[in-house]
Amino acid sequence: MAQCTLKPDLEFARELTEAGGESLKKCFQCATCSVACPLAPANAPYPRKEMVWASWGLRDKLKADVDLWLCHNCGNCSDLCPRGAKPADMMAAARNVIYKDLTAPSIVGKWMSKASGLPILFAIPAVLWLIVWWIRAGYNGGEWFPRAADGRIVFGQVFYGDYTIDPIFMLTFFGACFILFLGVRKLWKLFKPEGTLLVIGKTKCWLWHLVDVLVDEVVTHRKFDDCEDGPVTGKATPNRKYGHAILFWSFAILACVTAIVALGHWGGKIIPMIKIETPMPLTFPVKILANIGALLLLIGLAVLTVRRLRLNPVDHGSSFYDWYLLGIIWLVAVTGILSQCFRLADAIKPAFVVYYLHLVFVWMLFAYLPWSKLGHFVYRTAALVYVRMYGRS
Amino acid sequence: MAGKIGVYFDLQNIGGGLDVEALAAQTREKWGELVPVVKVSPVLAESVDEIKADIAANALDGVLLCGASPRVDGDLYRLPVQVEHVNLREQCVLAYKNPDNSPVNEADGAPELLALMARDYVNMGVVKLQKSEKPDSAAITGVARILVIGGGWTGLTAAAEAAATGYEVVLVEKADKLGGAANNIPVASPLGPLWTYKQPTNLAAKIEEVTGDAKITVHLNARMEKLEGQPGEFTAVIATADGPVSVEVGAVVLASGWVPLDEKYLAPMGLGKSPKVVHAAQFGKMLAAGEVTARRIAFVLDTTLAEEAVRKAAGEAAAAGAEPAPTEAAKPASAAAPAEGEEKPFVKEDLESIRHLAYSNAVNSVGMLRLANIICEKTDDAAQAFILYKDMTVPGILERFYKKMQDRLGIMMTKADVSGIREDGDHMVVSCQNTLLGMDFDLEVDLVVLPTGLVPTTAKDVVVEFAYRQGPDFPDLGLFDGFADSNYICFPYETRRTGVYAAGCVRQPLTMDACEEDARGAVLKAVQCIEAAEHGVSVQPRSGDASYPVFNFVRCTQCKRCTEECPFGALDDDEKGTPKPNPARCRRCGTCFGACPERVISFANYNIDQIGSMIREVRVPKDFKKEGPRILILACENDAYPALDMAGMRRKTWSPYARIIPVRCLGSVNAIWVSDAMSKGFDGVMLLGCKYGDDYQCHFVKGSEICAKRKENIAETLDRLGVQPERVEQLEVAIDEYDTVPDLIDGFVGRIMEMGPNPFKGM
What we know:
The complex is a heterodimer of chains A (393) and B (763). Chain A has 393 residues and is mainly α.
């Protein structure tokens, strides 16, 4: 009997427990969860099987499990579990462990996995930006809080775009992209079963599938509707869709603003017509858009935070990963808005200090993205593309 | 013999347009001086004082209450004389329908057929009381001492509980120390609330409690040599190292426990072939001794491999077609032994089989959870315990225990078909298929733990050594594979030997908490039994019945049918075969008098003549076509009669040609009653009783089965006389089948209508 020999890894089970899946031992495999899940297809249901794999510490099985990423974490399964287990939390925990394991260098993942890693995560950009500040202060004749020639507060005086912010952030951004690319490639290989996979019927390039996913699911947040319309649990489901969608759109807006400003800045050096000077006046359309983005960010965050605080801990837990992501976005948003406010209020010291913090937090958000819960935006998208390519959607 | 009967009609409970006054007048006229008081009361329950006054004033010695079913309001009438009820409501008025199914208009008064039926029932009631006597009880001086056989967890609990209740206890243990299997279980599944965590058994404290109690005498290295007599005054002879000890006891608690299933049955799963395969009881012993070093352990609850090996071997034996297996040969011999009497010596049949493994699944499920949890806890989850089950059976509230045990990180469970267990180098490989993990896989483990089959000691040995006419062992129904149990659902602890109550794993494979509960239950039954013997009344199901079989030995032909057929072995006999009744062993079912061809056995308030007279009291019309047939229904009091009551209450009606007489058990139906009915002109006799066979529901275990056998003889006799044997039918009904019982009756009546009149009618 040539069967695979199973090697349960209780260390993995322990990791999952620590990453928010502490109920994984409770499952008695009744499969209520798989029935309750509004997204799980009838011919390949989840999360029942994920629960038993987790309980047995089957690291490889869970890593290679595409279903893990199809879950949108609505929590119907946890609500309906007759045994008080929380499959939704376990699925989230498994994703967290995968962010940690899949992405190199793994030391960052370790720091990211618990609160005790926070000081290091914070210290890296804090020191980085402090050095930048110190060097620039030297350039400015030892003045740590310099004013522009016209007396305005211009953050570029200290954190000069061309030599400091842009190179550092571009490096960070593309570095994160590269790390994510490696992660996605690894994950893709894991998804593919051993041997060759025969696809019958029309096939198209993964890129078109990606477009389909973006248009059909990401933009519309369609699956969130399925989640909320899931089996009636008798409990009011706080609306996650709008919180998440608002947050998503604010990110999109802010990304656009950043791109426009970068284009205006660098492109302006060649084509003076499109040159954009920062700080932009409040009435400038791009600035208006940026402030709308910031406002949406706050609203989305508030909705999601209130929802998470209101979750019944009996059915739904919140792990460090959840709070880290919400927290870091809060900090980015608050420091961003405050630095604008202090700048306009002409409070130079608070303005620079807060702006410095803003840079630290933005760097944290992007640099650690592959190891944080925000990684879902890449890994889940990859999984959604994968299932579309191989005939499930 | 009641000579002065008061007849009372309960007007509010009759209805149906019946002219009750006319009924009363008819009764007065027909029975004359036998019924000095005939009264119609608007609400009878309020006239109890009046009845009592009538009893005193007229020296009544019997009271007949005509109204609701005795099951409904029988307890309202506690009177100093014999009381009999005529069920005019549920089984007469409420069950009445016109033969052509036309609607009944009560405003026009009762239909004639209903009036005839009511009159028949009243007359039957009067004659029943007339032929009945108030029984004098066969009270004995009960010995306030309980014999407990087995000094394991159950036996110790039983002994302590009995002593705490104030009874003396004699405890017989075959080993040289107390505790039995519990000696290997220092930490058990929960023994009480909150039912979640493992619990130390504190066996030493329990033993201390027993040995330190002045009321308890313990015999170690001892076994039963003989138990004779009857409840309340048994004599137990105990074989001890110092020779036999004889002691008087009132009742017995049988807690002799279990022995592990023979290892040969588990050999297909590797037991005995490798030291790395053990069964749960062995593992428990190793664990208690601190000898377990394995870090990866497979607990295999799926025993399909072993079961299939047995099936295959049986198939091969059948294919070989040679001589039947030795167990098969032993069966007819031992079955025939009691039947043919003294000529053949008693041979104890070994009832051990692979089925004991399946019966023990719940105990093994709980036990393996416990053992797996202990090993994980001891090693702080460095150990991996795999539980591979086919059925994870956790009884009742132990679900909470399951949840707690399951929480342990090191415990991994899946439903699996274990398809192979083999040794590979320094470890074992367990192959699993159809698992919950969605794949087939091999597990490499250091140790394989198989379930332990709990084989009751009663399957292997004669434990009690009854000095009874029917043999030294418990009679085996062939249904329970040797477990000492008679009617498990209705009457736990009961065995078919009155006064002997089984508890613990000899009765059913049980967890330790359930063994304790069993011990308490069995002790209560033993106490009840001694009390009942002191009052000279029956234990259940006829609790409190003071009547008992009386033998008219003058006519006895020593045919031994009664002694052989008694389901409880109540009757012994002498060398010649003259029956010797033991009233305290008797459950009052009447199977003995049903068996007696000479009709020498009777109860004071239930006898052959009485029922025969009731049958003869029914007015059977001569004109079959015009006035319809008459059908006699002898209905078992325990299930069929309540089912009929419930049918009536729900207005489910049946043919007005039927006349129902309750009997204690179909086992008490004597063939003469059928002859009585046939010669009286009844067109059919329906015997309505409990289900028998594998899922039997008979309160007296064998009654309906015996009746079915006798019915065949009756049918033969009828055939010889030129009466269609189909005129007598036995039908089975369960207590909850009230919705189908009217159809049973109507179906039978329909068949009789087709057959036409009884050829003896009018002769």
